[in-house]
Amino acid sequence: MSEYKPLSPLSSLIFASRWLQLPLYLGLIVAQCVYVFLFATELWHLVSDARGLSEQKIMLIVLGLIDVVMISNLLVMVIVGGYETFVSRLGLQGHPDQPEWLSHVNASVLKVKLAMAIIGISSIHLLKTFIEAGQLGMPLCTPELTAIKSPCTSFTREGVMWQTIIHCVFILSAIGIAWTDKLMSNGSGHKGAAH
Prior knowledge:
Layout: H1 9-16, H2 22-48, H3 55-87, H4 107-132, H5 143-147, H6 157-194
């Protein structure tokens, strides 16, 4: 059993400052509860109004549910992975419910997983936009048009174009993060082999 050398008061203070992140992770747990409530509300809306909804509307609601689940997954990765990486160990080794990805999590792995989750969320939003893109060219929805249930759209061609460009930037960013991480891990592997 190894003994730790006592830290100086300044080192102890700096090291203990990592606990300042705890309220942030607890806040994300509250946000997770809000998403569970949002999911339940949308699911109830889908089930209770299913007979009066068009197939396209049902598809959009289901995509919204998938979007909520993916954002919730992102929150879990940030809460559990971030706490384990930056604050303190959770002590889950050997626990039957330990997530597979948590056994090899570090800041680099977390960045790549978060980038992939963001791309997934962006893909859902883009898919929802493409489903409703058939309404492009109609007048933009206003409270008056919505009140009289007149056909309208909340999308413009420029908006769809920018959403597609932003999605592509997310993909390029994730590729850049993964490539940089690969270069760094290969570089540290070569250094370890040289020593």
